[in-house]
Amino acid sequence: MSAVAAVQANHFEAWQQVISNAFVPLQASATRQGRFRARIRSNHIGAMHLSEISAAPHRVSRTSKLIRSADAGQLKVSLQVRGNAVVCQDGRETVLAPGDFALYDTGRPYTLSFDESFRSVVLMFPRELLRLRPNDLADLRARRFDGQRGTGRLVRSLVQELCVREDAAGSRSGLLICDAVLDVLSAAVEEGVEPAALRGDLLGRLRSFVEQHLSDPELGPETIAAENHISVRYLHKLFSADGVPVSGWIRARRLERCRRDLADPELAELPVSAIAGRWGLPNAAHFSKLFKATFGVSPREYRSAHLGG
Fold first, then answer.
1. CA 277 – CA 216 distance, rounded (Å)
2. Model confidence over 171-222: pLDDT tens digits?
3. DSSP secondary-structure letter at 11?
């Protein structure tokens, strides 16, 4: 690649200028005290702008004010190579691990947060080059795509091929690979479009995950979010939109499983504390209080009433 720019620790403001020149006007802020180092390698291949970024932890924002001053009408795809990133746009947050990529729009506010040193590859190109049906883009912004399997893996492989091709900008093969990236990317996002049911399907998968792990006393928002590749904030937003906080939903499902087992004759010899423990509630006194507050009677009273003493 060409057009290499490097910024050292005492030039953080210069880094903001460098990435604004490379992409679109952006705000950058440090998330840690101390030295800051970053490096970007950029190239233009046809209508596509390709950049490799290695940097220390920081945060990048595209604000409404910056958009009003200059909307370039571009889409960006960020492929995570090393470290994790959090992408946020239109109220959706997603965590990118190495191999993942996400799509976002320079015409709408977004943030990228990096809590550790990272390396990523960013593609930027005009919106019209990605063949999308009307309104599909709204369902795709800040979505996580898995670059380890399926069509996503083809996207990752082609992008990595462009990165190692020193002659990509001036060669016909480079332009053909660039076209292939856009074609395969279009296929990947087409597979990922779930317009009306997107949030509902994700919420259903999250609830299914909770049901399968109710016996784990450590089950909580952080575990659920990490295992499903979303941020904790987005997890809370999904559950809150449905009217029940995630912790409340976990608690309710555990209590319902306990209530069912307490009324099961085949489990009559199992102590109440053991039933609570098998559903992730090891503190017997706390379980008893929760059960009575929910069902109006203590666990022992409930069992007695349903098993005839």
1. 9
2. 677 777 788 888 888 888 776 554 444 556 678 788 889 989 999 999 999 9
3. G
pLDDT band, residue 166 (cuts 50/70/90): low
One fold for 2-193 and 199-307? no
> Contacts by 34-40 with C-beta closer than 8 Å and gap 24+?
34/9, 35/8, 35/9, 35/10, 36/7, 36/8, 36/9, 36/10, 36/11, 36/12, 37/7, 37/8, 37/9, 38/6, 38/7, 39/4, 39/5, 39/6, 39/7, 40/4, 40/5, 40/6
* CB under 8 A, 24+ apart: contacts of 294-297: 294/252, 294/255, 295/255, 295/259
pTM over 0.85: no
Q: What's the distance, Cα to Cα, between the start and end of the chain in Å?
A: 79
Give 42-70 pLDDT, tens digit per residue. 888 878 889 999 999 999 999 999 998 76
d(CA 232, CA 94): 9
The residue behind tokens 């005290």 is: 33
Three-state DSSP at 150 gives helix
Q: Which CATH number fits domain 2-193: 2.60.120.10, 3.40.50.12160, 2.30.30.140, 2.60.40.10?
A: 2.60.120.10
Angle between helices 246-262 and 198-212 (to 10 degrees): 50
Q: Domain 199-307 is of which CATH architecture?
A: Orthogonal Bundle (1.10)
Task: Please check whether residue 162 is in contact with residue 174, taking contact to mean a CB–CB distance below 8 angstroms.
Answer: yes
pLDDT digits (tens, 9 = 90+) for 249-306: 899 899 988 988 998 888 889 999 999 999 999 999 999 999 999 888 999 998 998 8
